Amino acid sequence: MAVLELKNIKKTYSNQDKPAVSDFNFSLENEEIVTLLGPSGCGKTTILRMIAGFIRPDQGEIYISGEKVAGRGIMKSPEKRNVGMMFQDHALFPHLTVRQNIIFGLEKKLSVDEQQERVEKLLKMVGLEGYHNQYPHQLSGGQKQRVALSRALSRNPAVVLMDEPFSSLDERMREVMRREIREILQKSKTPAIIVSHDREDAFSLSDRLAVMRAGKIEQTGTPREIFSRPKNRFVAEFASRSNLVELSGLKDTDDGRVRGHCLLGEVCLSPPKCVCQNSQECDNTLLAIRPDAFEINPEGNITAKIIDYIYYGSYVEAHLEVETSCENITIKTHLDRIPGQPGEKIRLSFREESCWILTE
User: Fold this and answer.
1) Considering all CA atoms of the chain, what is the largest pairwise distance in Å, rounded to the nearest integer?
2) Based on the structure, what is the number of domains in the chain?
3) pTM given for the model
4) What's the pLDDT tens digit per position in 342-351?
5) Is there a single domain that holds both residue 118 and residue 196?
6) Pair 224, 262 in one domain
7) Do 171 and 269 sit in the same domain of this protein?
8) Which of 152, 207, 259, 322 could join 86 via S-S bond, C-beta 3.0 to 4.6 A?
9) Can you say how many angstroms the Cα of residue 35 is from the centroid of all Cα atoms in its chain?
10) CA quadruple 285, 290, 296, 298: dihedral, nearest 10
11) pLDDT per residue over 178-218, tens digit each?
12) Are residues 188 and 307 in the same domain?
């Protein structure tokens, strides 16, 4: 049984014409980590706040551990929903110690000894033994985050909710905390829903993703499925940052594949690389090519002019203009394979196994 279910959820704010969330259906399995991934304003945080009980859905039902907590005639308060909430700014009380911040989230019926035992267990789990008497201003960003997670886990919640948990951290600390938080959630066997607009956070932390746009889920799947097999143009551009080029002249081959032409040349893909099963089903088709699918190849059939580079440490993204069409593409290559300087021309090829045919 799913630990969390949302059925036909709809929410419209009074100052908006369009729903922030509509026809939203979602479930979370036990011990699963799922990220709601999407651009700002797509409804991610609204979903999180409805699950937590901070706002009421206009329509639909929410179930936690099989119990209805929101729906017609029912609106359970946050403290009665058995969820742990980890806020974007950590929301630690500055005048309380680490121990006191964690105890604040515990059930009042626990004895002092039971509270102390729970605090000790949580701090050991998150690697903060000995920090009981520290105050928030004495902690680093990563340490504050672990205290906030400890407080969210303190009541053994059915599910933990995290709102942009890494937004206040620098890049190096983000990498460390993604790994640590995943390990902590797995160790505690606590399912979690994470809200994020950052692809790296979502892909590295999640068992499953739900890519959102305009209050609806566009596609759900494992990080690999979302990255390698986007369902439509939005998912391809937002989640995998794919280059999209028009396809024409699609035909079925004798060996069961689909052949077509695009501005980068001829492609021949197997049906699993298409959202359609054969060329007759394909209409208004696009070829999604990930930036890492391109290879700098002196014998490649694509000629392009370098526009500029963006450096990302060990790799660079090069923006190119294709000679035959004047359209731009983006490629991703290692730092030691920089092909030339802006204004120079290079030759490329791309791996067809890293491409995907879309119908919209």
Assistant:
1) 75
2) 2
3) 0.86
4) 888 888 888 8
5) yes
6) no
7) no
8) 152
9) 5
10) -10
11) 888 899 999 899 999 999 988 888 999 999 999 999 999 99
12) no
